[in-house]
Design brief:
This protein is an all-alpha fold. The protein has a single domain, classed as Four Helix Bundle (Hemerythrin (Met), subunit A), CATH 1.20.120. 77% of the residues lie in helices and 0% in strands. The longest helix has 35 residues, at 112-146. The radius of gyration is 18 Å and the shape is globular. GO terms for molecular function: cytochrome-c oxidase activity. Keywords: Membrane, Transmembrane, Transmembrane helix. The chain crosses the membrane at residues 12-32, 47-68, 80-98, 118-142, 163-185.
Length: 186
């Protein structure tokens, strides 16, 4: 029996999402053995939040530009920009998970009232959207990678892609706000 990815997009989406989210929760909950990770100088680890903020801003630009490109019918530009956005997201996530596995999450340095009524709700929305985006992004990516461009309009790529891109943009944007509250404002 021949396995064809195009015939199993929902199942592959589920498997890839489960693996990805297990890695995220494993890093955040401290279950990834730190000794298995390569060591870098502490200055590099300390720079990761700043690099990730820059990656997020660039990703916001690539996603927005990709959205504009597809609305104008430029499929090749859309594809290139969305693949660039995916690479940026993977880089962001790898750096984030590496840092969290090594040093844990950053404590909020601001006032308690801001923490409770501003920071935590923004962080909760950011995290929720990031989790929701994972299967949506895998789904539209797998549809795009397993079908010729001419077939994509007959799939849910466009409909799910709009939702995924919107949530992805908001998640990246809120991530920048979280960064600003942790490292710039306070």
């Amino acid at each position: 029996m021949e396995f064809r990815a195009r015939d199993h997009v929902p199942a592959l989406t589920g498997v890839l999402s489960a693996i990805s989210l297990a890695l995220v929760f494993g890093a955040v909950l401290g279950t990834i053995p730190v000794e298995s990770l390569p060591r870098v100088p502490s200055g590099i680890v300390d720079a990761i939040p700043h690099v990730n903020a820059a990656i997020s801003l660039v990703a916001i630009g690539t996603i927005t530009t990709a959205w504009r490109a597809i609305r104008r019918g430029n499929v090749d530009r859309h594809r290139a920009l969305m693949l660039a956005s995916l690479v940026l997201f993977v880089a962001f996530l790898a750096l984030y998970l590496y840092r969290v596995a090594l040093v844990g999450t950053a404590p909020f340095p601001g006032p308690e009232t801001i923490y409770q009524f501003v920071y935590l709700p923004i962080l909760a929305i950011h995290i929720t959207l990031a989790i929701v985006c994972v299967p949506l992004l895998y789904y539209v990516l797998l549809l795009a990678l397993t079908r010729p461009i001419e077939e994509l309009p007959q799939t849910s790529h466009r409909r799910i892609g709009r939702v995924a891109a919107s949530l992805w943009l908001v998640s990246f944007g809120l991530g920048v706000v979280v960064y600003a509250m942790l490292y710039v404002i306070y």
